[in-house]
TrEMBL record:
Any Pfam family hit: Asp_Arg_Hydrox
Domain of life of the source: Bacteria
Protein name: Aspartyl/asparaginyl beta-hydroxylase domain-containing protein
Domain Aspartyl/asparaginy/proline hydroxylase: 22-180
Gene source species: Nocardia jiangsuensis
Record InterPro entries: Asp/Arg/Pro-Hydrxlase, IPNS-like_sf
Length: 284
């Protein structure tokens, strides 16, 4: 099995969106009220800031209700104002759990994490429909950067550790469709693919480079810039292929070297929160 074949089990193309439909959905997404207070910055522990969402299908019909859970989903008041998007979602014929419009601003990160940990064991996948993107906005999984191109429907298995970033902007807009894996969707997933140019394997990082990055973080922390020191290490996930959770271990070790047991405890807890039971076992 090639590296590309293995990656398809985590992120792949499910289908294409015709240009006319994409333009209509994009227009509706970009013309929702641009008051940033209307967007919800939920899941703050999973991000650097700059990531916000609005719900189109959820449990309550309120577009600001964005923390996903199992429910009997219904259209929100926002989706009722977006006829092209409503028609597109209906045309897919999938069984939605939750659907959101997501915006990721420039110089923003979703840190390495797993999703669905708080939900029951039902089989689910997440579909991404990029509406506005750029070459510095990537999804990272399995030590690989993947450029989610517009005009396609991408399937992600978010129970694998992954993250996302938008380094330079402009803002990235995606539709996020959390779906139950019924027979129709499972058949579509079975035919998912990746083209050779979609992914970019990141280089590994040797002990010397990791030591240098930790020393730089120590310098920042010594000057009182603890958050900057943490982000300096967290960003390694988007630059180098590292073992799962290693960035969290590096930050815990940073606080150990600062003789800060509370910092060590906090980042060990963060690792368990972000990566779940596997992380808990590695800390045992």
């Amino acid at each position: 099995m090639s590296d590309l074949d293995g990656l398809v089990g985590q992120i792949a193309c499910l289908g294409r969106v015709d240009t006319a439909t994409l333009e209509r959905v994009r227009h509706e997404a970009l013309t929702v009220p641009d008051d940033r207070a209307a967007w919800v910055a939920e899941y703050g522990e999973f991000q650097s800031g700059g990531w916000s969402t609005l719900s189109l299908i959820n449990r309550s019909g309120d577009p600001r209700d964005v923390r996903i859970e199992d429910c009997s989903p219904r259209a929100t008041s926002l989706l009722e104002q977006m006829p092209a998007t409503r028609e597109f979602l209906s045309s897919l014929g999938f069984r939605f759990m939750w659907v959101r419009l997501a915006r990721l601003s420039a110089n923003s990160f979703l840190w390495e994490h797993r999703d669905y940990q708080e939900l029951d064991g039902s089989a689910r996948v997440r579909l991404h429909v990029p509406l506005v993107t750029n070459s510095s906005a990537v999804l990272v999984t399995a030590g690989t950067r993947v450029q989610l191109r517009a005009g396609r429907i991408w399937v992600l298995r978010p129970t694998h550790a992954h993250g996302a970033c938008n380094l330079l902007g402009p803002d990235r807009y995606h539709l996020l469709l959390d779906c139950y894996l019924d027979d129709r969707l499972a058949a579509a997933v079975q035919d998912a693919w990746l083209d050779a140019g979609d992914s970019d394997a990141m280089p590994t990082s040797g002990p010397e480079e990791l030591t240098r990055r930790v020393e730089q973080a120590l310098t920042l922390a010594g000057l009182g810039y603890h958050t900057a020191a943490e982000k300096h290490l967290l960003r390694l996930f988007y630059e180098r292929a590292l073992p799962e959770g290693q960035v969290y271990d590096l930050i815990a070790d940073l606080y150990r070297r600062l003789d800060d047991p509370e910092g060590v405890r906090r980042w060990r807890t963060n690792k368990r929160l972000m990566l779940g039971e596997l992380a808990a076992r590695t800390l045992a």
